[in-house]
Amino acid sequence: MSVFYPLDPTYTDPKRMKKEREKAKKLKLSQWWKIKIQKGECKYCQKTFSPSELTMDHLVPLARGGRSTRGNIVAACQECNRKKKLNTPVDQILNPGI
Question: What would be the CATH architecture of the domain defined by 9-89?
Answer without folding.
Answer: Orthogonal Bundle (1.10)
